[in-house]
Design brief:
It is a single chain. 72% of the residues lie in helices and 3% in strands. It is mainly alpha-helical. A two-stranded antiparallel sheet has the order 1-2. The radius of gyration is 17 Å and the shape is elongated.
C-alpha cells in the first residue's frame, strides 16, 4: 500500500505540473506563480520522502531483517503525504479537476484517500509504531 501511495502521489504531481504549465492566468502559466511553484516543490518533497521510507522498509525485508516499525512508518507517512499531495494537485486543477473526468486527478484523489483506511488505518499504524518503540525497536538496522 505504501508503494501504491507513492505512485498515486507521483502521478498527481506529474498531472498537476503538466496542467500548471499549460493553464494561463494573468498572462503566464500557473507554474510561474510563486504560490503554485512552492506548492509543486512541497508536493515533490513529500513524495520523495515517502518513496525513501518505502525503499528503506523493502531493503530491510530483503536483508531478512524485521521491519514492522519501518513498514508501518512507510504506510503512515506514505498515505498522509500522498493524500496531501493529491489534495494539493486537485487544488491546482481547481473545479476542472473535481468535475471533469478527463484530467484523472479526481480518480486518484478517491483512490489515495482510501489508503489511509486500507491495510490498517493511520491510527492502527501509529499503534504498531508505538508498540515497537516500547519494545526497544528504536534504532535503524544499518550496517
Amino acid at each position: 500500500m505504501s508503494a501504491r501511495c507513492v505512485g498515486g502521489g507521483q502521478k498527481a504531481l506529474e498531472l498537476a505540473l503538466e496542467y500548471a504549465e499549460e493553464r494561463q492566468t494573468f498572462g503566464k502559466p500557473l507554474a510561474e506563480h510563486q504560490v503554485i511553484a512552492f506548492r509543486l516543490a512541497k508536493m515533490s518533497a513529500r513524495i520523495d520522502a515517502a518513496r525513501l521510507l518505502v525503499y528503506r522498509s523493502a531493503w530491510l525485508l530483503d536483508r531478512g531483517s524485521p521491519a514492522a516499525r519501518e513498514s508501518s512508518i512507510a504506510k503512515l507517512v506514505g498515505a498522509g503525504n500522498a493524500w496531501k499531495t493529491v489534495d494539493d494537485a486537485l487544488q491546482i486543477f481547481g473545479g476542472n479537476g473535481y468535475v471533469r473526468a478527463e484530467y484523472m486527478i479526481e480518480r486518484i484523489w478517491r483512490d489515495v484517500r482510501v489508503a489511509r483506511v486500507y491495510d490498517g488505518s493511520s491510527e492502527v499504524q501509529q499503534m504498531v509504531i508505538a508498540q515497537r518503540l516500547r519494545k526497544g525497536d528504536v534504532e535503524m538496522a544499518y550496517e
